[in-house]
């Protein structure tokens, strides 16, 4: 979480998985490889990661999509989903279809169009009648919790109420 003036920003980095996608000296994109072991949490891993293909930025944005979907729904649509085929499962999770179609269309070394991806979620926000107030839900909840604690601390307790009544 960002702090201070960046408190409305969320920074997602998994340092256990982070790696350079370009060579430090040549700035050339890492090579495409197969037969890679799945690294990370399978639940949020890209389709390519499950297939044993070297991950790149296209996989990062795909995985981010799964995390955002989890935030939006509280679970991933295929968790506990009963479907006979993979095709049927994908048909049941079409709400992020444009996002994932875009991710899957990226070449291994292609720069993702982050502005386009952000726009997809802005459209989704409007569709769901969400208000983008630059404040995370958990920030508001924390503020309410703090206000409640402060109110309780300043509220007269039973013994002080009795003292007030006897003074009258």
From TrEMBL:
Q: Show the GO MF annotations.
A: ATP binding; protein kinase activity
Q: What Gene3D superfamilies is this protein classified in?
A: Transferase(Phosphotransferase) domain 1
What domain of life? Eukaryota
InterPro entries the record matches: CK1_Ser-Thr_kinase (IPR050235), Kinase-like_dom_sf (IPR011009), Prot_kinase_dom (IPR000719)
SUPFAM superfamilies associated with the record: Protein kinase-like (PK-like)
Protein kinase domain location: 1-168
Checking PROSITE patterns in the record gives: PROTEIN_KINASE_DOM
- Please give the PANTHER family that the UniProt record associates with this protein: CASEIN KINASE-RELATED
- Protein name according to UniProt: Non-specific serine/threonine protein kinase
| Organism this protein belongs to | Onchocerca flexuosa
């Amino acid at each position: 979480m960002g702090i201070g003036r960046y408190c409305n920003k969320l920074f997602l980095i998994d340092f256990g998985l982070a790696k350079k996608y370009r060579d430090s000296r040549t700035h050339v994109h890492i090579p495409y490889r197969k037969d890679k072991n799945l690294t990370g949490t399978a639940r949020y891993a890209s389709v390519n990661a499950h297939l044993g293909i070297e991950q790149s930025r296209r996989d990062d944005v795909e995985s981010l999509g799964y995390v955002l979907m989890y935030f939006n729904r509280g679970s991933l649509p295929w968790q506990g989903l009963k479907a006979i085929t993979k095709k049927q499962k994908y048909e049941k999770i079409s709400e992020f279809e444009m996002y994932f179609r875009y991710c899957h269309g990226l070449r291994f070394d292609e720069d993702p169009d982050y502005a386009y991806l952000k726009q997809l979620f802005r459209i989704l926000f409007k569709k769901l009648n969400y208000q983008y107030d630059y404040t995370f839900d958990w920030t508001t909840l924390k503020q309410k919790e703090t206000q409640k604690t402060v109110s309780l601390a300043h509220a007269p307790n039973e013994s002080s109420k009795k003292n007030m009544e006897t003074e009258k």
